[in-house]
TrEMBL record:
It comes from Rhodococcoides yunnanense. PROSITE patterns: HTH_TETR_2. Pfam families: TetR_C_31, TetR_N. Signal peptide: none annotated. SUPFAM superfamilies: Homeodomain-like, Tetracyclin repressor-like, C-terminal domain. This is TetR family transcriptional regulator C-terminal domain-containing protein.
Amino acid sequence: MSPATPKDDASRVRRRDEIATAAIEVLATKGFRGLTHRAVDEAAGLGPGSVNYHAPTRSRLLHLALGQLFARDFEVAGATFGSLVDVKPLTADVVVSRIVDFIQAMTTGDAAKRVIARSIMLGEAQHDREVRELFDTQRGAFVTYAQWIAASLDSQDPQAEAETLVVMIEGLIQRQVLIGSRLPRSLVEQMLRTIIGSSPLIAD
């Protein structure tokens, strides 16, 4: 057997990404019971049995989907918040606007499907320790990311304020996708200002 080449490795990574994206699509449109290897084959446009090669078990399929989901979410977070510490002066209006940008990015298009898929997998995490650990790790990384932002803003208690910020963002994202009609941007901004406007998170 000839050794694998970088091209072969890249092809496998690309195929796993395609499968993970298809699994998220299936979860978002068909629910957890609809997550079968056959359904993911079809969603990915692959022949029958193709998914089995990369994800022979349902657990492995979930892990691929979660990895893809978390990676895409962090890309959105990085694009939205990455330059925040360079904004001078940093005001409540700037922070509120950037958070609302992030919420909108996370609740439209493919990102909205990830929100639905995440909520479904989070329910499964209550009964699957490995899936729960993946969620805990991902959320911990996001809190750490928020804590870095808070610390960069001379926060007096970065850990507590980062946790508060993440809880607030998570709740608004779920509200926009999973609960009734969407709130207008102006109302979301007003809701955030009632918290952020009076918080020591904002450095004048």
